[in-house]
Amino acid sequence: MYHLRDHIISLVAVFLALGLGILIGTGLSDDMLVTQQRLLIERMTEEFTELRGEINRLETCIEEQQKDLLLWEKYQEALYPAVVYGVLAERKIALVCCGTGIPPEVTQLLQDARAAVGPLIRIESLENREVNPEYTAETLLDILVKEPFRPERLQADGIREEKGFYLTGEQWGKPDTVLFILGEREHAAAEVLERLLKGLQSEGILTVGLEESEVKNSLLPVCKAAGASTIDNIDTVFGRYSLLSVLQGSRGNYGVKGGADAFIATFSLGGGMR
Predict the structure, then answer these.
(1) What gap in Å lies between CA 74 and CA 207, rounded to an integer?
(2) Which CATH superfamily is domain 88-254 in?
(3) Phi then psi for 139, rounded to 5 degrees?
(4) Where does residue 65 rank: exposed (0-12), middle (13-18), buried (19+ CB within 10 A)?
(5) Per-residue pLDDT tens for 32-74?
(6) Sheet strand arrangement including 253-254
């Protein structure tokens, strides 16, 4: 009987302990939850304050940059006539587009500089086309520098439009410069480009490779390896001024990508070759 009473007392003590533990635990959990929520709110408030400060700082920076951009545009407007107008009046320039078109800003630059812009050869995607690189390059070289302008020559030599070559413009004799406007590598024929570059340089013709900033799979390394000057940001005002400088005598590789040796070429207000 004594043992049963002790057992009952032990059970009651256990249940009392459990109940007390539940009550204490519940109270502690509520307090901890409230504390954690308060800390979370405080942290979020601090982060919001920091973000608001960062936003204000960025807005101020944007306003300053917009002012600088406006001043630069005004400066460019004032500088452009002195640097550009008429400085390429004696240049004869042919254009070769590989897998892309001519940026209108480049056309405007050459027009304002009074360059004589002659034939335009477009080389579209040559993927899955039956093209002999050596023969094709030789034919294009003949068309550019050795023969009068004859669009029918393309068909006569088997380089038909369906093979990805188009020829437009006027021929006024041998050009002193050929600009290669390049798109993505997969849209042109690197081997044709390389052979054509070497052929033009053997004729003493200045060759310049141009591409826009967004081009990823670049053909400019082909131009650079062949000894041509290159500009990888021709869609920017800096790239166009570099082009103008290169056409006046500043050879080199310019732009913002890995193959560039300098951001922008120097140029002369007096114009002419240096």
Answers:
(1) 32
(2) Response regulator (3.40.50.2300)
(3) -65, -45
(4) exposed
(5) 667 777 888 888 888 888 888 899 999 999 999 998 888 878 8
(6) 165-168, 116-123, 92-98, 177-182, 206-210, 229-231, 253-254
